[in-house]
Amino acid sequence: MSGHGRERLDEGNAAESIDLAPKIGLCAGMDHFLYRDGALYAEDVPVAEIAAAVGTPFYVYSTATLQRHFRLFDDALDGIDHLVCYAMKAASNQAILKTLAQVGAGMDVVSQGEYLRAKAAGVPGDKIVFSGVGKTAEEIRVALSGGIRQFNVESEPEMEVINAVALELGVVAPITVRVNPDVDAKTHAKIATGKSENKFGIPISRAVEVYARAAALPGLEVIGIDVHIGSQLTDLEPFRLAYQKVAELTEVLRAEGHNIRRLDLGGGLGIPYHTQSNDAPPLPVEYGMLIKHTLGHLGCEIEIEPGRLIAGNAGMLISEVIYVKSGEDRDFLIIDGAMNDLIRPAMYEAHHDIIPVVEPAAGIESQPYDIVGPVCESGDTFAKQRDLPPMAAGNLIAFRSAGAYGAVMASEYNSRPLIPEVLVNGDQFAVIRARPTFDEMINRDSIPEWL
């Protein structure tokens, strides 16, 4: 996809001067889940066919959408030295990682497990960035031994530990320091990371002091600056404010003698969870123009770490209606998916568009339902008074924009097995994580011999 309309940044406020039109959402028309002849398809595979093969509930991902969304970011930074590192905490199945690695993605990891997943998927260490506030000595050791592009250092104690482990292994660890610019990302409080009260990074006011300490440690090589202000941002202005501070800091640190040659800008660009809303988030091309405008003059390699925007609209959760229940003043759709399968609505009050797998006939009137799962909590509610065509037991529904922070945050609460993940590629589909049997789930427990 390319932007239309004016594609030049005027001097001044970049966030105000970008005016690409028409404004195209990444959900409507930008994924590969469409109705054909009255049936919902994932690329060229009927969703109902997958449901019949694997059972419900399940996640389904589109190869074409994953790769298209990666290329949107890659193309947005065309003309400057850059690497797009997929933030794999959004969806970390190895098949997804390999799908993205094949088109050139690096990986942003936040744990030893994610690092090992990336390596297992064939991603080389020099394309893996290690972020996260609580890296342990063992995690650092594993990454230094296996190869790492850089550590994004979150604190001075962590910096000391990386130095010690690097000296122990006889290597030099490449690092950036994550600075906290005290910028309000204007997103949900639980996914904001760039304000002074958040746990992430060091205060930007202390950056000169901290970089001086890093330069004095023989096991470290300072290569750049890292910043990440939050997730699901729907406005470019917080990015602009943060990146201006990073630009100023780059000049200051270079004057102090540091060879700042790489800027890791994090991720956070939002997706349109409400497809009927006219308030679409900025496009990757606009984001790329902002980066070039605020930081391009520095001659640094740029790293970005999108996760949600790559995976979010590339996946859906498919569930079956168990019962339609009439209440005092409302009807309930009780489905076989639950909060343990998709926790975002319960945790973040998050919205997901919900559509029937069978397209309603023209002229069918919708009616409101509360859509709920079988878990014994009132919080197991996906939507209230959501309009759908008349539904019946056995009907299938699809939760759109469920590819990010869906399967990765799932649990076995209420002893409900983790649900399958399916990847579609054209007219093919494959189960990329199978549903465990009840015996497999239960037999992971160990009973002490005294019992």
Q: If you had to describe this structure to a student in words, what would you say it looks like?
A:
With 451 residues, the chain is an alpha/beta fold. The chain has a domain at 64-310: Alpha-Beta Barrel (TIM Barrel). 27% of the residues lie in helices and 23% in strands. It has 13 helices and 21 strands. Strands 4, 14, 15, 16, 17, 18, 19, 20 and 21 form a nine-stranded mixed β-sheet that branches. Strands 5-6-7-8-9-11-12-13 form an eight-stranded parallel beta barrel, surrounded by five helices. Strands 1-2-3 form a three-stranded antiparallel β-sheet. α6 (137-146) packs across α7 and α9 (237-255) packs parallel to α10 (284-295). The longest helix has 19 residues, at 237-255. Mean pLDDT is 90; it is low at 1-29 and 187-196.
What are the defining features of this structure?
single chain; alpha/beta; TIM Barrel; 13 helices
Architecture (CATH level 2) name of the domain at 64-310: Alpha-Beta Barrel
Round the mean pLDDT to the nearest integer and report it: 90
| Assigned CATH superfamily of the domain at 64-310 | Alanine racemase
**Largest beta sheet, briefly?**
9 strands, mixed
Structural category is alpha/beta
- Relative helix content: 25-40%
Overall shape:
globular
Number of contiguous helices: 13
CATH class of the domain at 64-310: Alpha Beta
Query: CATH topology of the domain at 64-310, what is it called?
Result: TIM Barrel
Q: Give the beta-strand count.
A: 21
User: pLDDT under 50 segments (min length 5)?
Assistant: 1-29, 187-196
- Beta strand %: 15-25%
What is the CA-based Rg, rounded?
Answer: 23 Å
N-to-C span: 62 Å
